[in-house]
Amino acid sequence: MRWVVRHRTAYHYGGAAQDSYNEVRLKPVSNQEQELESFELTVQPAAAVEHYVDCYGNWVDHFEVFEPHTFLEMRTRAVVATHPAAPLPEDARSAPLAAIGEAAQNERCFDFIEASHFTDTEPETRRLALEATEGQTDVWQAALAIMRFVHRHLEYEPRSTHVHTRMREALAQRRGVCQDFAHVMIGLSRSLQIPARYVSGYLATERASATHAWVEVFVPSAGWRGLDPTHHCQPDETYVKIAVGRDYNDVPPVRGTYRGTLSRRMEVEVEINSAGER
Q1: 243 within domain boundaries
Q2: Is pLDDT above 90 for 65?
Q3: pLDDT value of position 208
Q4: Can you give the residue range of the structural domain that contains 48?
Q5: 187-209 pLDDT, tens per residue?
Q6: I want to staple 240 with a disulfide (CB 3.0 to 4.6 A). Which of 17, 106, 130, 202 is the partner?
Q7: How far apart, in whole angstroms, are the C-alpha atoms of residue 173 and residue 101?
Q8: Is the Cβ–Cβ distance between 114 and 196 less than 8 Å?
């Protein structure tokens, strides 16, 4: 499938803001499952946009607006072609869970087996993970069992949490949004030493087009494999991947600082349209 993704973020300030520095993580990746055909970022007030690649391989655009302003807007347009994920190799389907600790020796996994800002690996988390994976002896089936547990344990409820909600809070109230589903699955997986990372991106469905979050777990002989606990499925061609990190704290779409008024209002709009088959 080919998708045209338009994303708008705007801030309205109650007074003058200045010396604004902003980072934008909205450029989709190119990998085996998707190909980025084009990407544009425009900023108002006009500013020179530069970029760097962060420690997790994510593309980060950044810019500064020094002069006083009461409005800041960022618009992106991306054209992405998505493809079905390759089947899981047969030898990966039987990778023993008991040996997953060896993944910690892989530098790609080290940051994704420890607790992070929004996730934990406390004894209570491990107890839940062991309960969820009872009887499972291989990594992939254990990850599927954790996804199934999270999907059943949490109820999806829009606006029931916010971007600062930690996995422990979501577990306690047993509801949340996709970010919370991802954080809970990550914490449970890491408590069993299964490397797990947060994925930010988009999901295009018949009902809505929106930003989304899901999880990738590391499976020996297969590498990183996506799982979506919110919808209890493996990501398909309706998923567009942007960035990965230890949790949401590493991959917010927009992050910035400025001097001036504390009064501000944010608007976010996402529009995803099918451009047909590749």
Answers
A1: no
A2: yes
A3: 66
A4: 2-83+252-274
A5: 999 999 999 999 999 998 766 67
A6: 202
A7: 31
A8: no
Q: Which of 252, 249, 255 is nearest to 20 (CA)?
A: 255
- According to DSSP, residue 122 is labeled -
Alpha-carbon gap, residue 154 to 151, rounded angstroms:
6
Residues 136 and 207 in one domain: yes
Distance, CA of 147 to CA of 189 (rounded, Å): 9
Does residue 244 lie within any of the structural domains?
A: no
| Tokens representing residue 183 in the block | 């954080």
* CA–CA distance, 80 with 95 (Å, rounded to integer): 33
The amino acid that residue 5 corresponds to is V
Supply the pTM of this predicted model: 0.95
Domain count, the chain: 2
Q: Are residues 60 and 94 in the same domain?
A: no
Q: Are 252 and 22 in contact (CB under 8 A)?
A: no
Does 185 share its domain with 100?
yes
At residue 278 the predicted structure's pLDDT band, cuts being 50, 70 and 90, is: low
